[in-house]
Write a structure and sequence with these properties.
The protein has 222 residues and is α/β, with parallel strands linked by helices. 35% of the residues lie in helices and 15% in strands. It has 7 helices and 8 strands; from the N terminus they run E-H-E-E-H-E-H-H-H-E-H-E-E-E-H. The strands form 2 sheets. Strands 4-5-6-1-7-8 form a 6-stranded mixed sheet, with helices on both faces. A two-stranded antiparallel ribbon has the order 2-3. The chain has a single domain, classed as Rossmann fold. The protein is globular. The longest helix is centred in the last third of the chain and has 16 residues. The structure holds adenosine-5'-diphosphate (ADP) and magnesium ion.
């Protein structure tokens, strides 16, 4: 930023085993989104290696990365990121349209997924005709459409009331139980009860849970 170098992440060395539910906790600005975008191949590191499913993401060109993302990752964002002009069904089917699959197969699979997230009766609704919780459930269905190995969620409950947030968290926990690898970044402490692994971030560095807790207890500087 101008003359200042921001180290969004600094010396982060982590391993996320398959079939785990990892929760990355950190206050605003600690580097959570940066970490998730790097793992998801949405962003590139200035230095270091990122290996997902034995493949070096940091060495891939844009096309390879786009293909890898589509085949391997499912993304869920705080602000849902649904396409406003498309129905719920079309939104779920959308990431599949580049995969060389017929429209009827795409629709069939999207319907199954919308049913799984409890929204079969909302298939034809546009995002503006759905509540926040329903929109995020559509986003969960969309994240699953290409059978991803890894599900990455950036503050998925951040824009939801607590009941809808719990529903979405429970869905992510169920996906983990069904064998998927799930990584959620959040500053919502309630998320950690679903976690098999926890990572704590402060100022772009990974810290221990005790260091994290004691930092949280520091009063704000006057
Ligand atoms: N495009 C950018 N240019 C400069 N600094 C950025 C940019 N994006 C994020 N940052 C900085 O990087 C740090 C980490 O940001 P981010 O990963 O978004 O944190 P979090 O998701 O935990 O709130 C913050 O200090 C933020 O101000
Ligand atoms: Mg963020």
């Amino acid at each position: 930023m101008g003359g200042t170098t921001v180290r969004a992440l600094d010396g982060v060395d982590i391993e996320i085993p398959e079939h785990t539910f990892t929760v990355v906790m950190g206050p605003s600005g600690s580097g959570k989104s940066s970490l998730l975008y790097l793992l998801g191949g949405l962003d590139r590191p200035t230095a270091g290696e990122i290996i997902v499913n034995s493949q070096r993401l940091d060495l891939m060109d844009e096309n390879a990365l786009a293909l890898f993302r589509r085949k391997t990752m499912g993304f869920i964002f705080q602000s849902f990121n649904l396409v406003s002009s498309m129905s719920a069904l079309e939104n779920v089917a959308f990431p599949m349209q580049f995969a060389g699959i017929t429209a009827s197969q795409r629709n069939e699979k999207s319907k199954v997924l919308l049913t799984q997230v409890g929204l079969a009766d909302r298939s034809d609704h546009k995002p503006s005709e759905l509540s926040g919780g329903q929109q995020q459930r559509v986003a969960v269905a969309r994240a699953l459409i290409n059978d991803p190995l890894l599900i990455l969620a950036d503050e998925p409950t951040g824009n939801l009331d607590s009941q809808s947030g719990t529903t979405v968290m429970q869905m992510l926990a169920d996906l983990h139980k069904a064998g998927r690898t799930v990584l959620v970044v959040t500053h919502d402490a309630r998320m950690t009860r679903f976690a098999t692994h926890k990572i704590f971030l402060l100022d772009g560095r990974v810290v221990s849970e005790s260091e994290y807790q004691s930092a949280a207890l520091q009063p704000l500087q006057p």
